């Protein structure tokens, strides 16, 4: 992550915002990319005064919402064969076992899987394509997608920015400690949501989960 931050710091601010939106957007379409690492690195740059936190957060939210929506459209058109092709292309991230877990989350929790999925690497990648392939109604998907994207983007960015600025003020002579503190705060900002989402995924189903029925788009 430090290498990513160093690389981003050499770019003009507009390029940083575009990279944040682009990487997170492509990740949300179903392609495994380090979207969260890029967001955390950019938020730390904002704390250092290199970029503006509001633009980092807006770029991340834009990429998340638009990328998920494109992933939804692609998944709706391509269906399960598309997910199978993605699994063959990225077996470590989107193999049959990962796909089965993600589909089980959707079957149990519906659009809440989209919201919580923004805080879990596997579902962050699969939420859009899988929701489209399962014909989750788009209006419901969009509400959960937008809510999750905004909370994740603005929450992560501003928590890291705030802690980073405080660390810079109080720990000027121990810069590495400020960085560690900021990173730990960023991880802590999503701890509860990650833990809750994983608990939901690991809960044994009392009865076989019913498949998600196709819904009419709004």
From TrEMBL:
Domain VTT: 41-161
Any coiled-coil regions, as ranges: none
Record Pfam families: VTT_dom (PF09335)
Chief site of localization: membrane
Membrane topology: Multi-pass membrane protein
Subcellular location: Cell membrane
Identification of the protein by name: Membrane protein DedA with SNARE-associated domain
Organism this protein belongs to: Micromonospora palomenae
């Amino acid at each position: 992550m430090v290498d990513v931050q160093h690389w981003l710091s050499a770019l003009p601010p507009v390029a940083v915002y575009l990279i944040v939106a682009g990487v997170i957007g492509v990740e949300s379409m179903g392609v495994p990319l380090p979207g969260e690492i890029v967001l955390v690195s950019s938020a730390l740059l904002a704390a250092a005064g290199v970029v503006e936190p509001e633009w980092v957060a807006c770029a991340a939210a834009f990429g998340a919402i638009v990328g998920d929506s494109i992933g939804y459209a692609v998944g709706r058109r391509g269906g399960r064969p598309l997910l199978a092709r993605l699994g063959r292309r990225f077996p470590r991230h989107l193999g049959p076992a990962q796909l089965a877990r993600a589909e089980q989350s959707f079957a149990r929790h519906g659009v809440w899987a989209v919201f919580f999925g923004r805080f879990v690497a596997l579902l962050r990648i699969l939420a859009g394509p899988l929701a489209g392939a399962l014909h989750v109604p788009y209006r419901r998907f969009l509400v959960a997608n937008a809510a999750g994207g905004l909370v994740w983007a603005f929450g992560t960015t501003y928590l890291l920015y705030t802690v980073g600025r405080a660390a810079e003020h109080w720990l000027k002579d121990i810069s590495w400690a400020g960085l560690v503190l900021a990173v730990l705060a960023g991880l802590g900002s999503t701890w509860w949501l990650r833990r809750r989402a994983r608990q939901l995924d690991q809960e044994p189903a009392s009865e076989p989960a019913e498949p998600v029925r196709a819904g009419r788009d709004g």
